[in-house]
Structure formats: structure tokens, C-alpha cells
Amino acid sequence: MTHMPLVALVVDDYDPAISFFVDLLGFELAEDSPDVDSDGNAKRWVVVRPPGAETGLLLARAKGDSQISTVGNQTRGRVGFFLRVDDFDATYSRLKGAGVEFKGEPRDEEYGTVVVFRDIAGNLWDLLGPAA
Q: CATH topology for 1-71?
């Protein structure tokens, strides 16, 4: 095994999720292709990733009640995603100014500066910067 290329993130709809990750967080839109699901219904294969990263997020539109119930709660209220940035202060200020919802204030830990934020679906992320 060499790496994990994708992690699925269940979302309500593709375009608002793309806008959040690409326009707000600064991810790259790596792929947005038409596709079909196992039942032959139209869907899209949408992958976003931080610039230069190998691992991306597969934005998967929820289908059916079971999947819809997981939108924003894939990790059952725990932080399940982690975004490391080089310039924590600039990124935090930019995201806060753009209306991203943060839970609490940034704090310094042994591993770096950290603050929790919600993505467009409601999932919790750690925004991580270098250690002070």
C-alpha cells in the first residue's frame, strides 16, 4: 500500500459543497465528471483536495434516507477531518471573515495551534497550524 487517495464526504448537493471547499477553503477541484450509480441513476464524481495533496475528498451526494441522515454527522459529533495550514493566523482570519463557523477560539497545543470549524455539511474539522 502506498497511500489513501480519497475519503468520501456525504453532502446534500455537489455545487454548494464545491463552492465551500474550492472558493472558501482554497482546495482544488481535481475532478467533476458525470457518472451513474449502481441503479443507473445520474450522479457526479467530484473530487476536491488541498493544493499539492495526494489525498482528496470525494463529495458524494446523499441518496436515500439513510445517507441523508449522515450529512454533517459522519463522525457522530467528533472531529473527523484535519486541515493543516502553514499560516494559521491568516487562514483563520480569512475563514472567519468569510463566515465559516468556528467552535471556540484557537488554542496552542503541543502539536500546533488548533481550532474546530464546521464544513458546509456540518462535519467538524480541526484547522491546524504549526506549533508556536
A: 2,3-Dihydroxybiphenyl 1,2-Dioxygenase; domain 1 (3.10.180)
Q: What angle do CA 45, 40, 74 make, to 5 degrees?
A: 50
In this prediction, residue 38 carries a pLDDT of 86
Looking at residue 119, what is its pLDDT?
96
What is this structure's pTM? 0.91
Q: Based on the number of CB atoms within 10 Å of its own CB, is 48 exposed (0-12), middle (13-18) or buried (19 or more)? A: buried
Q: How confident is the model at residue 37 (pLDDT cuts 50, 70, 90)?
A: confident
> Fold for domain 73-132?
2,3-Dihydroxybiphenyl 1,2-Dioxygenase; domain 1 (3.10.180)
Which three cell numbers mark 34? 458525470
